[in-house]
Amino acid sequence: MNLDLKGKTALVCxxxxxxxxxxxxxxxxxxxxxxxxxxxxxSLKNALKELDVSQAQKHNYIAADFRMPNxxxxxxxxxxxxxxxxxxxxxxxxxxxxxxxxxAKLEEFQQAFNNHLICNHILVQSLMEGMIKxxxxxxxxxxxxxxxxxxxxxxxxxxxRAAVANWSKTFANELAPFGIxxxxxxxGATLTGRLQTIIENNSKNKSKTIDExxxxxxxxxxxxxxxxxxxxxxxxxxxxxxxxxxxxGINVPVDGGRTGSL
Length: 262
Known about the structure:
This protein is an alpha/beta fold and 262 residues long. The protein has a single domain, classed as NAD(P)-binding Rossmann-like Domain (Rossmann fold, 3-Layer(aba) Sandwich). It contains eight helices and seven strands. The chain has a seven-stranded parallel beta sheet, sandwiched between helices.
């Protein structure tokens, strides 16, 4: 099975922590040149030091804020013009604030739509021409199992994630003739800062201890534990590889069996 990414360049969003960082590390281990993208330049420089360089990979970073889509567009287009094609795109950014949909403000939907769909779209449009010319393209979107079964107390997230999933499937069909694959990875409860925030919010809202909330969540997972970010990254890396050339337009849950549907 060919998992070799030597000579390929990957852009990984939200890559200074959590699943994004774990994905960047795994892609580098497979030989890819990795471009980190996040807001904080100091964090980007620190994360860059953790990437494997044993295969003469050349890593870099772009500091950009998804809250400013026009700035993102300018920066990514300049980077491509200066450095050449990017073969692998991992769309990933922090999820919307938790809460009931009935209490959600309009601006919460608007900001989440910009962060998750508009910025994804900007990146794909900026990179797909290079993927077509290079005859290699992998677009992987980190979204959520909520595209299959909506999650409690995540009203805005459930709404926006579904939009991204259908956007992704549409792009998969349009780009398939060029050999470019577009797939979604759906993490379940994963040991990241976002999970910790969700647990803390649930603890306050339900007047329960952190341990009680964690235990309740784990009881819903057949494997009885939370995922490590590296386990989600393994799915990302496989979909980015030559071995996954005929897999496109699918959702891949990495959730320990928690999602209540196929």
